[in-house]
Design a protein that fits this description.
Layout: E1 2-4, E2 7-9, H1 17-26, E3 30-31, E4 33-34, H2 40-43, H3 50-62, E5 68-69, H4 74-106, H5 118-126, H6 131-137, H7 140-163, H8 165-171, H9 178-188
Antiparallel strand pairs: 1-2, 1-3, 4-5
Length: 204
């Protein structure tokens, strides 16, 4: 839902919603996002096209019955993006480590302590492995690079946690670490000064 100079426009939450929301806000519109699953008038309509859907959204708005998705402010959206980026890096980091572990198991090699410390990497480098398996070990450089990027993301998120009183409150709960507290607050839209709301989280 978008308003500018007392004119309203509406659209359901969909792919690309974040980009469109930011574009409209940059041009002075008051953007609102309709929740598609809760727009039963549209979901159950026999005739469905953009013109009919837009008219239905307008009627729901005039009746104050439009189910909205809460649109997170820009800082929250950026922090959510950083959290997603970190999660993808961690998954790739874990995938590469598991690949090395699988290769070692295939050759019957084992090490009681970590393979990722300096002594562990020296042990890996000294193993008498076939050329194909040796190529797997070379991903250690990629693992180290990924770890550096993850550490930088963690440092940024640590600053977010340090500056956010609500994250500190979540961190006091048993079993909730600082990263989990940041993730929980950003996915729920909790941030200092954010209004109470009943609408579900939006894009970003």
């Amino acid at each position: 839902m978008f308003r500018r100079a007392r004119r309203w426009r509406s659209r359901p939450h969909s792919a690309g919603a974040r980009w469109l929301n930011e574009l409209l806000q940059d041009h002075g519109f008051d953007a609102r996002m309709a929740h598609p699953l809760q727009c039963k008038a549209i979901a159950s309509a026999q005739l469905k096209n953009d013109k009919v859907d837009a008219a239905t959204l307008a009627r729901l708005l005039r009746s104050n019955l439009l189910p909205e998705v809460w649109i997170a402010p820009q800082p929250i959206r950026e922090q959510r993006a950083l959290l997603r980026h970190r999660a993808q890096l961690v998954r790739l980091h874990t995938l590469l480590r598991n690949r090395i572990h699988a290769m070692l198991a295939h050759h019957g090699c084992d090490r009681a302590s970590s393979c990722w410390s300096a002594p562990g990497q020296a042990w890996l480098a000294a193993l008498p492995l076939p050329a194909a398996s040796r190529r797997v070990v070379t991903v250690l450089e990629t693992i180290d690079t990924l770890q550096q990027v993850i550490d930088r993301a963690d440092a940024t998120l640590a600053q977010v946690a340090k500056a956010d009183a609500r994250v500190k409150v979540l961190h006091r709960l048993p079993g909730v670490g600082p990263l989990t507290a940041v993730i929980t607050s950003r996915r729920s839209g909790i941030s200092p000064g954010s209004p109470r709301r009943a609408r579900p989280p939006g894009p970003g």
